[in-house]
Amino acid sequence: MMSGHFSSLAYAYGLPTASGQLKQSPSDFIVTEQLSFEPSGDGEHLFVLIKKIGLNTLDVCEQLAKHFHVHPRNITYAGLKDKNAITTQWFCFPFPIKLTADFNGFESESITVVNAIRNTKKLKRGAIKANKFEITLRNLSGELSNIEERIQLIKEHGVPNYFGAQRFGHNENNLVNVRKLFSGKIKCNRNKKSIYLSAARSFLFNEVLSQRIKNNTWNQFIDGDVAVLNNSRSFFVLDDVNAEIMQRLEQGDVHPSAPLWGKGEGISVGEANKQEMLIMATHSEYSNGLVQQGLQQDRRATRLFVNDLSYQFNDNNLILSFSLLSGSYATSVLREIINEVNFG
Q1: Which residues form the TRUD domain (predicted)?
Q2: pTM for the predicted model, two decimal places
């Protein structure tokens, strides 16, 4: 079953009436990463595009480090990818220009080198234009016509931009650990601390978004709202919800937003701020802890458009193909299509 927090969140189109199963095998969840730039072909940084099966991103980092005799922390990647899947993603590490990369003995049933190319600068986290997904949902049951109706709604209106269940860890352990961190019961390294703090921020964002869905405002502006530019981290407070801003909203140029909580005064004002502060007060253990940790407030769009969405039924299975901007979650799309019984 889906974890408690994620499964409790409101649905934009009501609870789906069709069910299915995800990740019965790695081939049921295929992800291909698209960088936000093209490697130059020159330079002291080697970019390696790897197709991996049944391994997580850090597993591949370890094998690259061992094969090329580099320190694991010198190997960078744009984003983490699932283990129980077939994923294709870029890795990068410094490699002297005078040397030729030898992958002999590196590849296996789990790892295939798709491409290797040099670049003048290293690969940074988040340097992803989009992720392309091909997902198979098996053993469908219930009202299958409801699936097609929902896909059409998603094409037209998008989905709530929830942080996915994987953000919170197995059995939501990241939320358990961040509470221990806030109370001083545990200490952890910088990487784990970042994961735990992100889980707390994601929880609060999801709770605000869920309430806006209940209020029918997740894809509409309200008084005091903060507009986020499409495919951007830029945002601005709305002085007035006028015809021009409504047209930009309709065209997908801007989106409503919810807070990524941290220190400082609330960015929203008016009714939007009132609603957000109520959620922060309800979950003060998380909101106060984030402030004490010194994180700066930010914003994230509440609406997510799903690009190039297509589907086909194959026997009792549904095959979905779509792409999402970096930082978005496929499970947040899937939960609006089927009442999934096992999110893997």
Answers
A1: 158-308
A2: 0.91
